[in-house]
UniProtKB/TrEMBL annotation:
Pfam families: AMP-binding (PF00501), AMP-binding_C (PF13193), PP-binding (PF00550). One of its GO terms (cellular component) is enterobactin synthetase complex. Keywords: Phosphopantetheine, Phosphoprotein. Residues 507-582 form the Carrier domain. InterPro entries: AA_adenyl_dom (IPR010071), AB_hydrolase_fold (IPR029058), ACP-like_sf (IPR036736), AMP-bd_C (IPR025110), AMP-bd_C_sf (IPR045851), AMP-binding_CS (IPR020845), AMP-dep_synth/lig_dom (IPR000873), ANL_N_sf (IPR042099). It comes from Lentzea guizhouensis. Its cofactor is pantetheine 4'-phosphate. GO terms for biological process: amino acid activation for nonribosomal peptide biosynthetic process; enterobactin biosynthetic process; monocarboxylic acid biosynthetic process. This is Carrier domain-containing protein. GO terms for molecular function: 2,3-dihydroxybenzoate-serine ligase activity; phosphopantetheine binding.
Amino acid sequence: MKVLIERFEQTAAAWPDKLAVLDGPEELSYGELDRRADGLAARLAGRGIRAGDLVAIALPRSAAQFVAMFAVVKAGAAFLPLDLDHPALRLAQMVRDAAPRCVITSAAAGAADWLASVPRVDVDEIGEANAEPPRQAGEVSLDHPAYVLYTSGSTGEPKGVITSQRALANRLSWMQERYPLAETDRVVLKTPCGFDVSIWEYLWALNARAAVVVCKPGGHRDPGYLARLMADSRVTVAHFVPSMLRVFVDRGGFAGLTALRRVFCSGEVLPADLVKRLRADTDVPVHNLYGPTEAAIDVTAFDCPGEPPGAVVPIGTAVPGCRTYVLDDRLGHVTGESEGELYLAGVQLAHGYLGRPDLTAERFVADPFGGPGERMYRTGDLVRRDGDGLLVFVGRVDGQVKIRGQRIELGEIENTLEACPGVAQAAVAVADTPAAGPRLVACWVAESCAALVDQDLRAHLAERLPEAMVPAVFVQLDALPVTASGKLDRRAVAESAAAVGDVAGSAPQGPVENAVASIWSSLLGVDRVGATDNFFALGGHSLLVPELVDQVWRELGVDLPIAVLFEAPTVAEFARAIEGSDP
């Protein structure tokens, strides 16, 4: 087993002219990527970066990210990818918590306030260095950190997960052994860098002599653009969160993808009916993966047959180097097809949470079934084994949910909402909508004399949390609903959204407003849509925006930028934007 950089450097030395990264018009060969990374690594070493240090990367999705990642690893450090789409306050929170030695950035990141406290290294100033690269990588062992990723935290603070070189090496190794890439393969990079799936999208191909095709920033939300990119670039391997896969299938995205040979899914439950719908368009194999950030991305896998059994696709069995236990609340093995909590063990477990020893001790516990000193990770996921011994996801034992593949702690949203001046209490739950899928609902109780409206709460959260963590619906109550035993009734919180959704605003006026209302009604599965109704409050989300824009083009002949809806989210505002646009 080798540390990350060794295999890449061997490939770069043996095949320097082979394509490594395709980013629009920019192409990076293995040799050029290696030389640029050497130059940047030399600068990092000059800044005193050594083995075990942490270096942040604040760059838009681009070829430059690859240069930065490999430079950090060559310098012996671990990298912390920062998603520039996140609110500035959240990025500042992560940087403050992680305390990286420096941040690699560029002019594209701007002079953000949250970057001011960290020494900057500008990737744009790095050419092909003639100087000898640092030899720090030789000091890096498999037990050194490889990267840190932040996930949602129940206390209101995101938490950094430290993944080792050994865990990453095992993750890339089993994937290549089970689903071997050839040197002609091309993997599309489209997952935002703050999510763990992006790690294998960046690195798997470059550890297998294949190439990576880079999706432009924001392009991962646009199925039409993705289909064109994948067809034109002859992408052979792609990952989809199931909710995005459904949108992609609905848009006929697989029709022209003649080079595609594998589709991976993870991040959400994969419905069997979605796989069947996909089969109508393509016979490309579909692989369902499962795993948390705390266990190097994925620890189980299932290769979907033509007709998946049951309503949901199993998450499969453990991959090499990993173990799965289904346990009861006394840590006893659950037998048969009964439900239990999933625990994970093996080489892919993270070191723990950065600067959070108490939380690390709480979630990473002694493994009573392993050897001395071995640990297991408590996932909080409820699973069962089916008749074939395959793991099937059932639900959660706590307040963690998945929205469009993003792992979200409801407690973090609640704590952030309660920090808003004028909010006394808050509770958040998930309500399912037939057309638009799951959406977050927030119930809140105002402090006396507080005068707040939904827009105030939405703005407060949008400044601090990623878009997927901002509730679609806000419901003000005199008191939060509780069960007979006095506990918060999350089911009642979720159901409170129905009362809001049943009351439409004032009727649409004029042909454009009526056309917009009709499109929204069809797209979101809502019977009545008023002029003042908000697209996102009705259950809309970013994955549906491209479809909305496409329908506006087909029915009204107006081609709007996707960003317009975020600036004009009500029927009346959106209609005015259409009327003010050139056809």
